[in-house]
Every structure is written in structure tokens, then in C-alpha cells.
Amino acid sequence: MRILTCLAALSAAMFATGCGETPNGNRQQEQVINGFYQQHIKNHSNGIPGPDELKQIQPYLSQTLFALLSKASDVEARYHAAAETPVPPLVDGDLFSSLFEGATSFSLDSCESEENRATCLVRLRHTPTADEKNGSDERWTDKLLLIKENQQWRIDDIEFVGNDQSAQHEYLTDTLNSVINDYQ
Questions:
Q1: DSSP string of 17-79?
Q2: 149: closest CA among 86, 61, 17?
Q3: Number of helices (H) and strands (E), helices first, in the chain?
Q4: With left for phi above 0 and alpha for psi between -120 and 50, is residue 55 left, alpha or beta?
Q5: Residue 44: its pLDDT value, please?
Q6: 107: which strand partners?
Q7: Radius of gyration for the alpha carbons in the chain, expressed in angstroms and rounded
Q8: Which residues are CB-contacts of 77 (< 8 A; sequence separation ≥ 6)?
Q9: Which regions of the chain does DSSP assign to beta strands (E)?
Q10: 174: burial class by Cβ within 10 Å (0-12, 13-18, 19+)?
Q11: What mean pLDDT value characterizes the chain?
């Protein structure tokens, strides 16, 4: 009887692992999200990233999102090159979060996975620096949409959930497509 109980428990564990996301998959999702936000916060750039920043964040992005960001970056460069006088950026503020000022810290809240897709909630925080006059400490949550490409998790889009403070579209890809369509 004891052997049957052990076999049943082992079978249940193998079944659960085969149907759901493995602990290794969760670690891969966490590594991709951590790497992306660490790099982005370190760069602390606003607007559409240029070629150098794109190279730094490419390992964390899906091929589709990277291509869209690259195209938007090219459109931005052509827009500025064609202007006779200085012009504002096509996207003002932080491109990768709901808050204009961007995040100064983050933590992964949770991920839900289905086969080759995952939705992850990330808690973000902006703590004002001494240079920011009248800045306030802001906290919000955004949603990252991940896909699995070549057995690796990659960020495919960001949903700007925020606290109703986003000046962008609801999704990062919508913002990028709008820039490309409006200024190409």
C-alpha cells in the first residue's frame, strides 16, 4: 500500500510538472524581466531607445518587439535629421512604464504561464531624486507579456496598467506602431 501511495504521489508530481510551467521556466521569466529592468533603469533613457540601448536590451526582447523598436528608432532618427530646427522627441518620457518619469526600482509580483505565453505583473516605483523638484514617490503595477522563442522567454509587449498616469497607449506596441505610422 505504501508503494502505491508513493507511486501515486510521484505520478501526480510528474503530471503537474508536465502540464504547467516548470520552476526553471519561472526562473527564466524572472531572469528576463530582471535583466530588462536593470538595464533600462541603469540607462535611464527617455523616449525611443537609440541603437546602443537597443543592443543592450535585445537579449530580453522578442524578435517582433525588437524589430518594432528598431523601426521606431530609425523613424525617430530620420525625423530629427529632417528637421531644420530642434524638435521634441516623438515619445516624451519613459517608453517602458506607465509613469512619465520612469521607474527607479522594480520587483516581480507574479507570472501566469500557458504553454509558450506568460503574463507577469511587475511592481514599479519611482523615488524622486534631489534634482526633481516637487516630485513624489509613485508606485504602480504594469503587465509584461512574454513569449517563448527558441526555448527562451522574451518580453513581447508591455501593458501600461499603472495608476491612470500613462500618457501612452494601453500597450507598448500600440505606441510604437503609432509613431511608425504617423512619422514614416
A1: HHHS--HHHHHHHHHHHHHHHHHHHHH---SS--HHHHHHHGGGB-HHHHHHHHHHHHHHHHH
A2: 61
A3: 5, 4
A4: alpha
A5: 85
A6: 123
A7: 20
A8: 50
A9: 105-114, 117-126, 138-149, 152-159
A10: middle
A11: 86
| Structure-block grid coordinates of residue 176 | 510604437
* DSSP-derived 3-state class of residue 156: strand
128 CB neighbour count, 10 Å cutoff: 14
- Alpha-carbon span 144 to 98, nearest angstrom: 12
Cell numbers 523601426 correspond to: 71
CB 73 within 8 A of CB 65: no
For residues 123 and 11, give the distance between their C-alpha atoms in angstroms, rounded to a whole number: 36
Beta bridge pairs of residue 45? none
| 135-163 per-position pLDDT tens digit | 788 999 999 999 999 999 999 999 999 86
Cβ proximity of 73 and 50 under 8 Å? yes
Is residue 147 a contact partner of residue 62, using CB atoms and an 8 Å limit? yes
Q: Edge-to-edge strands of the sheet including 105-114?
A: 105-114, 117-126, 138-149, 152-159
Residues 6+ apart with CB under 8 A from 84: none
Burial classification of residue 144, based on how many CB atoms lie within 10 Å of its CB (0-12 exposed, 13-18 middle, 19 or more buried)? buried
Collapse the DSSP code of 66 into the 3-class scheme (helix H, G, I; strand E, B; otherwise coil) and give the result: helix
Compute the average pLDDT of residues 32-60.
Answer: 95
